[in-house]
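note to self: dont lose this again. the chain is below, predicted strucutre after it. 114 aa total, dont forget to put it in the shared folder this time
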Amino acid sequence: MEKSAYLDAMGVTRWRSADAKGKPYLIIHDSDSDISQNQLVLAVLGLLDIDVADCDFDTEMVKGMQVVWDMRKLRVRPRVAWLVSAPLTALEVGHQAKRELWQQICQHNDKVAA
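---
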C-alpha cells in the first residue's frame, strides 16, 4: 500500500508549511495521476476564467482553499465546490455527465455575471 493511501485511509491530513504561499483554487479528484494537463480540465478551467497555475489538484479537501471542482466518485458532504461532476474517466466517455457539467458551468457563470 502506498504511504499516501495509507495516511488517507487513517484520516491523516498532509502537512503544509504556513509560510509557503498556497494556490487559491483546489480541484479534487480520485486518482493519484496528474490531471492538470488534461484537455477537458483545461477547457473547463478556461470557461471559468481560471489559470491552471492557480489550481492545486488533490484527492482530498484542503482547508482554506476554494474548491472549484469536485470530481470524486464518492460524494462527500458538505458540498462546497462550484462544480460537482462524475470522475474524469466518466466525463471523457459519457455524454450525460458532460451535459450536467456544462449546465453547472453555465449556472456558475450566470451567477458570477449577475
